[in-house]
Amino acid sequence: MVYVPALSRNFHRTGLHACPCGYFGSPADTCTCTPHQIQRYRSKLSGPLLDRIDIHIEVPKVDYQTLMDTGPNESSETIRERVNRVHALQMQRYKRESFSTNATMHPKAIRRYCQLTKPSRELLAQSFDTLGLSARAHDRILKVARTIADLEGAERIDTPHIAEAIQYRSLDRKYWDSLG
Asked: Whole-model pTM above 0.90?
């Protein structure tokens, strides 16, 4: 599921399904839509619009037992501390810039602040060609990878950071290209 602000009445405020019934690609439920219905539904969300969304992730249906699991979870306070630490790091890094976060970097700043290791550069180049990514998607991947690296305290963006950021961009390719 992808969060998309209310684009039209056909899209849910809390997310976007891959088809009108919401079950296309679900391992637990069966999609009842025809290929034509799915294609018509998907055509309402263009590639250029998807390019403007930083992260696309699939959120599978959660079964009741998993929902009720009371195992150890990371506390909200721990998560808040990590987010605040990374936010402070970005504020410091960009204190002389016209922006203050990775998400708001412009293309020239991306080239300056998103330094890649050689293997991560090669992975991004290969993914760019294989997935047919746009220039906008490329820059969004770099911004997300910079944030992932910041969360790990890494100075440079390495292969695992790029790989994770690419995974967050693959939902549109998985569903929107599957009917061809």
From this structure: no
